[in-house]
């Protein structure tokens, strides 16, 4: 999960509290003119909650500014980059009113925790939303293997999504045996899949996905880009609804 904006907000809030403390201390020791320090002292003593109010306001302000920066970055990159079939599995109408992008790793617990909401949203909106599912393995060799198999499965059309949701629904680390079992459950042609796995284009696709992720400041999974808004970390039904409301 990307925690930079949270750290910025907390840092700003702490700074605000510190600044007020300095003002209060200055007033207390008589550094400011008498009429000013008395007013500040009386006000802060009567309204101590102002520190919390300021902290909350500052956090919201910092978050809004960070969101603006992220939206500007996505706009600069262009959504077309995220819907490149060489990078993502793309499905849904090209002129859809909503766009949904997910960077994920099959061994990421937070991706798995988001799966139910993502699958529900996909089933409800596959006719009015453009989806891009981007393999973004970051948890080592087993994740890389799962991602390569999934990339190979893209060549068998919608069966890719069968495999995708099967893998995302697993409770244990994805290994070769589990991959083979889910490939069979998904209805994929194993011979075609194995042939596709020898194609160097799969590694190029993974490299392109990581390059895009780095340019978009994706530093963890899952990371969603919904209608141009970056949402790092787990996502819920309510958040998806809010991000895609007209």
Describe the 3D structure:
There is one protein chain. The protein is an alpha+beta fold. The chain folds into 2 domains: 4-77, no CATH class; 80-243, Glutaredoxin (3-Layer(aba) Sandwich), CATH 3.40.30. Helix content is 59%, strand content 10%. It contains 10 helices and 5 strands, in the order αααββαβαααααββα. Strands 1-3-2-4-5 form a 5-stranded mixed sheet, sandwiched between helices. Helix 1 runs antiparallel to helix 3. The longest helix has 28 residues, at 50-77. It is elongated, with a radius of gyration of 24 Å. Mean pLDDT is 86; it is low at 1-18.
Descriptive key words:
246 residues; alpha+beta; Glutaredoxin; 59% helix; 10% strand; elongated; disordered N terminus
Brief characterization of the structure:
This protein is of the alpha+beta class. Helices cover 59% and strands 10% of the residues.
């Amino acid at each position: 999960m990307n925690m930079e904006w949270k750290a910025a907000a907390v840092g700003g809030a702490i700074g605000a509290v510190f600044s007020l403390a300095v003002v209060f201390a200055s007033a207390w020791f008589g550094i400011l003119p008498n009429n000013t320090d008395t007013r500040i002292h009386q006000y802060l003593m009567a309204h101590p909650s102002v520190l919390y109010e300021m902290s909350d306001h500052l956090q919201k302000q910092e978050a809004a500014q960070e969101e603006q920066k992220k939206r500007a970055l996505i706009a600069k990159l262009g959504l077309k980059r995220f819907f490149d079939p060489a990078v993502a599995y793309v499905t849904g109408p090209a002129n859809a009113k909503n766009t949904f992008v997910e960077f994920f790793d099959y061994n990421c617990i937070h991706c798995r925790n988001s799966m139910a909401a993502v699958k529900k949203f996909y089933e409800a909106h596959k006719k009015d939303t453009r989806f891009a599912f981007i393999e973004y393995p970051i948890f080592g060799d087993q994740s890389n293997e799962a991602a390569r198999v999934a990339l190979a499965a893209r060549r068998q059309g919608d069966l890719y999504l069968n495999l995708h949701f099967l893998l995302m629904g697993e409770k244990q680390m994805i290994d070769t045996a589990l991959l083979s079992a889910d490939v069979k459950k998904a209805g994929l042609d194993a011979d075609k899949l194995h042939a596709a796995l020898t194609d160097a284009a799969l590694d190029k696709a993974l490299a392109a996905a990581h390059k895009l992720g780095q340019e978009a400041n994706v530093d963890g999974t899952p990371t969603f880009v919904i209608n141009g808004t970056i949402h790092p970390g787990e996502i819920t039904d309510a958040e998806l609804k809010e991000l895609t409301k007209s």
